[in-house]
Structure formats: C-alpha cells, structure tokens
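Why does residue order matter? Because the sequence determines the fold. Keep that principle in mind as you read this record.
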Amino acid sequence: QVQLVESGGGLVQAGGSLRLSCAASGSTFSLVAIGWYRQDPGKQRELVAAISRFGTTNYADSVKGRFTISRDNGKNTVFLEMNALKPEDTAVYYCAAKLPGFNVYGYWGQGTQVTVSS
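Structure:
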C-alpha cells in the first residue's frame, strides 16, 4: 500500500517556476516508479514526467527542457521542478505510483492545482 500527497501548486505568472512535491508513505517507496500526470477540465489526462526506481526519467515532449523530475528515497519524496511555465501548463497535477511488476499506476494522490496566468 502506498499513500501519496502532493503539494507545491499555486498561481504563477507565465515564465515563472514552481516546485511540486509528492510525499509517499510506506517502506517500499524506493521500489516504486512515480509519474506526474496533469489534467485540465475538458482535456485528456497527460503523463508529464516519470521516474523509475533506478532514477531513469522520461518526459512529455510538451515539457522537455522545462520540467525536471527527481526523487529523494531517503525522504520518500519525488519532486517536479517546473520552469518557464506557460498558460497551457495550467492543470491539476497528480502523482501516481507503480509497483514493480505492474504496468499501470495503481496509487494516486489527491492532486494539486497549478495555474499559470498570461
């Protein structure tokens, strides 16, 4: 069982930065992959960035070069550093966990709102 809590969202002007955190409970955190998703009303949910338990990262094309995902296993936390934010980055951001051997993210946080004003 993994419980996830996101924080760090807020309102920022275009070009600004935010750092999201995903704090996880459970002793298996170092074994899980974590993904950051976002969803805006009327749009499909999008996988923005992901990090494996080995530290391998991947990003959606829309955020490459602007967003950085990282993890601190000692603190059971994954971070999403977001720079050069654009109004189209506005969404609710969710972190999700995927256990070893599973192909889907089975554990989700409650989400944190990010709003980028133009």
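The CA atoms of residues 31 and 54 lie 8 Å apart.
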